[in-house]
Amino acid sequence: MARIRLEGVTKVFGAVVAVDDLTLTIEDGEFFALLGPSGCGKTTTLRMVAGLERPTRGRIFIGERDVTDLPPQARDIAMVFQDYALYPHMTIMENIGYPLKVRRYARSEIHRRVREVAEVLQIADLLDRRPGQLSGGQQQRAAVARALVYPPQAFLFDEPLSNLDAKLRLEARSFLKHLQKSLGITTIYVTHDQAEAMALADRIGVMDRGRLLQVGSPIEIYRRPRNTFVATFIGSPPMNLLRCRFQQAEAVLVLGDGQALALGERAEALRRAFRDGEPLWLGIRPEHLALAEGPGPTHLAARVYAVEPLGVETLVTVQVDAERIALRLSVDEPPVLREQVWVRVPMERALFFREGGELAL
Ligand SMILES: Nc1ncnc2c1ncn2[C@@H]1O[C@H](COP(=O)(O)OP(=O)(O)OP(=O)(O)O)[C@@H](O)[C@H]1O
Ligand SMILES: [Mg+2]
Q1: Nearest alpha carbon, ligand 1 atom 5
Q2: Per the database record, which ranges form the ABC transporter domain (predicted)?
């Protein structure tokens, strides 16, 4: 087990800066998720840690060792890819035993160890089959078993659950979390699925266009996203953003359609952070919004755009001004389509972002 450190790591492919000056320390035993949209540089980062790609600039350390110039096999890490990369012509036994075979373990020892991990992963009865004869979930477990059979200093996962159906994905998710916590092996887990990152990770690093935007615990990132990109990338549905203007004299925020929201106790802080008339984004999570009976200083008139029952709660999307905003409501009688409603915005829960997207308050 070991901590992993990236120092100023950059990867340039021709004209594309895939990873841009990444500095990051993943602690010993930590479950770290790298989260970001397609093409933001997650896989490239992971491949550099694995030694499959050489950084254009910067250094990578595993434990105390500078591994930047070491080949993959000298790094003592195991990687599980999105497509599992099992060898199709080998049986599951041979696949799982492969890391031991290349290390010249005796045949009987290989069989013993493979059986042991296969029992844990509940694929012991599949060892004679070939990968093509397994379901997606079984293949995933076989790939994890292969990573486990020779316990590495670190695990690298690249979207390992994306080929599974929704139910199996949840099962596999809790299995992976349990396994990682039981073994305490330092893990980097790449995903573009924010729910997966939230559920699994001790800390999340959010990436966009090769840059690391924010690192923190799932709750920190959920509660205090550093900018509107992170705010709208995390959460389902994401944080609502309302474009408004700060009107200092009246201590209100004015929306494009002229509706005003009283700032109350937040007014003083806004006065210090924003100029009079300055445009800004008010950010509020769907679970913090509620319906009100009628007009009020922090109520907005809105029209119901869609109603989606989720079981425990109902997701209601309403149109306010030019924007659509989402509410998560746990009420017995949700509003109906096109109904005119009042939405209460609890100012104490609101975040305020500058026009450029950066969090101010
Ligand atoms: N071998 C390569 N040659 C040229 N460009 C590449 C290469 N590998 C990746 N890129 C580019 O680098 C950027 C980052 O790619 P990367 O695969 O790391 O993204 P990602 O975050 O893993 O995306 P996804 O979620 O779609 O898997 C992309 O613009 C991609 O097109
Ligand atoms: Mg990728």
Answers
A1: 13
A2: 4-234
Phi and psi at 189, nearest 5°, equal -125, 115
Residue 178 has pLDDT above 90, yes or no: no
Q: Give the SS3 label for residue 54.
A: coil
Give the range among 77-86, 312-321, 336-345 with minimum mean pLDDT: 77-86
Distance 26 CA to ligand 2 centre (A): 19
Ligand nearest to the CA of 36: 1
Ligand 1: nearest atom to the Cα of 47 = 18
Across 254-260, average pLDDT = 94
The CATH code belonging to domain 240-354 is: 2.40.50.140
CATH architecture of structural domain 4-233: 3-Layer(aba) Sandwich (3.40)
Exposed (0-12), middle (13-18) or buried (19+): which is 68, by Cβ within 10 Å? middle
Domain residue spans in the chain? 4-233, 240-354
Global confidence as pTM: 0.90
Which atom of ligand 1 is nearest the CA belonging to 40?
A: 21
Distance of CA 312 to the CA centre of its chain: 24
Q: Which residues form the pocket of ligand 1, taking CB atoms under 6 Å from any ligand atom?
A: 13, 16, 18, 36, 38-44, 192
Q: Which two tokens stand for residue 62?
A: 């595993």
